[in-house]
Amino acid sequence: MSEVATRNEQVARRVIELHNEHPEKLLDVMEELFDPELEWTPAIVGGLEGGTYRGYDGFRRYYAERGEIFREGDLDELGYETVGDDAVIAHVMSCGVGRASGATIEHEIWLVFRLRDGRVYREKACTSRAE
Hints:
The protein is α+β, with helices and mostly antiparallel strands. It has four helices and six strands.
């Protein structure tokens, strides 16, 4: 694995680690880890599929909306795959607890991180490896 690919995997791992500690910690270092042209496409947010959040303001909006729906949520790491020098796929189990219902949800997702110059510029959550 190249030095760039190794650094990219470290960035992806750090994003997930900070998300799990608390989203505010991730947002505090957002400019270090994410490119200003960031595009984040979650698999599912509040039942809405396919929406893309753009830039730092969009990323903050995603976490605000997520906080209205879930009172807690973590990503349990299942594995990582580096693809070339610009992509990392993180296979995770997304676990959350609904704010209103208290219901626990779990779903397996694959997070695709695209990086340039050591920062994430595209992140997409997929519901299957093939996707």
